[in-house]
Design brief:
By secondary structure, the protein is an alpha+beta fold. It has one domain: Sporulation related repeat (Alpha-Beta Plaits, 2-Layer Sandwich). About 55% of the residues lie in helices and about 20% in strands. The chain is built from six helices and four strands; from the N terminus they run H-H-E-H-E-E-H-E-H-H. A four-stranded antiparallel beta sheet has the order 2-3-1-4. A hairpin with a 2-residue loop joins strand 2 and strand 3. Helix 5 runs antiparallel to helix 6. The longest helix is centred in the first third of the chain and has 24 residues. It is elongated.
Length: about 160
């Protein structure tokens, strides 16, 4: 009796393995799942500082900052202090500004500009490797300058 039980358990396992292998071989394993994991390739985190009613108020309040960009949206002037694609870098930049006493907000922006994306990925690598406040500040300024050069100026032409 014991031999029959062991025989049928081994037979069931062998049949299960072969039928599982057969089923898995029916699927095409060469499909591309890359796009499923990179759905938000065009998602950028903009570090927003504030929103002002006039350009004079904006300039007065932004005097402590060496470099920033702004956009005019319906008569409101929205200022930005940094841009990144990495959530960890976003936290690092916001931490830098919070330690400096500046309240910042995250704004998610979809942007399709391969040239800026390439430049930003290099700056994001540098930013992820540093904890120095002056370096963080310098990288934020460089990224904003590149954004103006590669995105804003291209859009206005």
């Amino acid at each position: 009796m014991r031999f029959k039980t062991i025989f049928f358990v081994v037979l069931a396992v062998v049949v299960g393995v072969f039928s599982g292998k057969f089923m898995l071989n029916q699927y095409d394993s060469n499909f591309n799942i890359d796009s499923a994991f990179h759905e938000n390739d065009n998602l950028y985190y903009f570090i927003k500082q504030g929103e002002y009613d006039s350009i004079d108020d904006m300039r007065e309040n932004m005097m402590p900052f060496e470099y920033y960009i702004y956009e005019d949206v319906g008569g409101k002037f929205i200022t930005y202090l940094g841009i990144t694609k990495s959530f960890d870098n976003l936290i690092k930049i916001q931490g830098y500004f919070n330690n400096a006493g500046v309240t910042t907000y995250r704004l998610d922006v979809n942007l399709d500009n391969p040239n800026f994306d390439l430049v930003l990925s290099q700056y994001d690598k540098l930013l992820s490797q540093t904890e120095d406040n002056q370096t963080i500040k310098g990288i934020c300024s460089q990224v904003l300058a590149k954004y103006e050069e590669l995105v804003t100026n291209v859009d206005s032409n």
